[in-house]
Amino acid sequence: MKKLLVIIALALPMLAGAQTAPKLGYVNTQELFALMPEVKTAQARIDSLSDQYETMIVGMQEEYKKKTAEYEQKKATMTDAMKQIQEEEIYTMQQRIQTAYQTAQQDIQTKQQEFLVPIREKMLKAIEKVGTREGYTFIFDQTAMVYTAPSAANLIEPVKKELGIK
């Protein structure tokens, strides 16, 4: 009998806890991320870098077109050795353009990671703070949800407040 009372005494808190419904919340991380002022600043820096690369590559392409047109115009009067030299120059220019384009893409991706990842981490920490402070069991990303229970709370406003966004 004593053992049974001990088991019941131990089981009651677990049963009571099991009957408490989890507190659910959600937030649209894409919307929240877009509202963060740091994102606009980072995107402006990325756009500036992209514009610089575009200007450089367009200049290289114009030089390539000019060299190719010049070659086509004069090739009938060139010796085979001169043609070979010009074709190698044109080929080298083409390779430089491809390398510059690939380097630009890689550099822009690196800068996106460098600028945007810390901002995303800041957003996720703010969501975690709000969840902890307000006692949420689960906070879901609205962009990936198919259904939201009526009892789930949209936490975008408290998270915006945590981030200092109006």
Describe the fold and architecture.
The protein is mostly helical and 166 residues long. The protein has a single domain, classed as Protein Binding, DinI Protein, Chain A. The chain is built from 5 helices and 3 strands. The chain has a 3-stranded parallel β-sheet, covered by helices on one side. Helix 3 packs antiparallel against helix 4 and helix 4 packs across helix 5. The protein is rod-shaped and about 90 Å long. 8% of the residues are buried.
Radius of gyration: 31 Å
Stated plainly, the CATH topology is called: Protein Binding, DinI Protein, Chain A
Q: In CATH's first tier, which class applies?
A: Alpha Beta
CATH superfamily: Skp domain
Mean pLDDT figure: 88
Q: In one word, what is the shape? A: rod-shaped
Q: Which range does the strand content fall in? A: 5-15%
Structural class assignment:
mainly alpha
Q: Which stretches are low in confidence, meaning pLDDT under 50 for 5 or more residues running? A: 1-12
Q: Which labels suit this protein?
A:
166 residues, mainly alpha, Protein Binding, DinI Protein, Chain A, 3-stranded parallel beta sheet, rod-shaped
